[in-house]
Specification:
Sulfite Oxidase, Chain A, domain 2; binds the ligand Nc1nc2c(c(=O)[nH]1)N[C@H]1C(S)=C(S)[C@@H](COP(=O)(O)O)O[C@H]1N2; five-stranded mixed β-sheet; binds molybdenum atom; alpha+beta; 4 helices
Length: about 170
């Protein structure tokens, strides 16, 4: 489960890097093995259009041991080169990572294998933690002192195109 452990039995889906004492590389089995108080079953109770089981961001951050110097959290998707960087304090308590559907990995068409989800996000590009920050196919969470990489669409037209592409 630690990044420096060689030979993993199962592919890592999600890395936690940057301002942490223990960088992590977590597989589906690692996420599923987190204790009950780290798990959030069935996110459809927050949003009826969404499905799947999640783990709490806070549980992952505790495992990694976030340093007090960390002020920003950046969600990276290398799949489509999408990145969102938000103030750590805003997402620390309520951020979720959806990773499981019907007992298996979250499908790509639902934003899997791992998708960030903030239950009560603001409308798109209205503030720092908006719907656009619900990063799909997230494969790395990076903690940093300064704001990190962020290429969320900022203009309405650009944003409309991005939604069109995602359909
Ligand atoms: N990897 C990735 N995640 C992404 C995006 C993207 O283009 N790539 N678009 C974002 C934007 S702009 C929005 S509004 C939401 C849309 O999520 P939905 O398609 O589940 O409604 O996903 C966000 N997550
Ligand atoms: Mo968006």
């Amino acid at each position: 489960m630690r990044l420096d452990e060689p030979l993993m039995n199962e592919a890592a889906l999600l890395q936690i890097t940057g301002e942490v004492s223990t960088p992590l590389a977590l597989s589906f089995a690692d996420l599923a093995a987190l204790p009950g108080d780290a798990q959030v079953a069935d996110i459809s109770r927050f949003d009826p259009k969404r499905k799947g089981d999640a783990v709490k961001l806070d549980a992952l951050l505790r495992l990694a041991g976030v340093k007090p110097s960390a002020k920003y959290l950046t969600l990276h998707s290398s799949t489509d080169n999408f990145h969102a960087s938000v103030p750590l304090e805003v997402v620390r308590e309520r951020g979720l990572l959806v990773y499981r559907l019907d007992g298996g990995p979250l499908p790509v068409k639902a934003g899997g294998p791992v998708r960030f989800f903030i239950p009560d996000f603001a409308a798109c590009h209205t503030q720092e933690v908006d719907e656009c920050a619900n990063v799909k196919f997230v494969d790395r969470i990076e903690l940093s002192q300064e704001r990190g990489q962020d290429n969320r669409p900022s203009e309405e037209e650009e944003h409309a195109k991005s939604h069109e592409r995602q359909k």
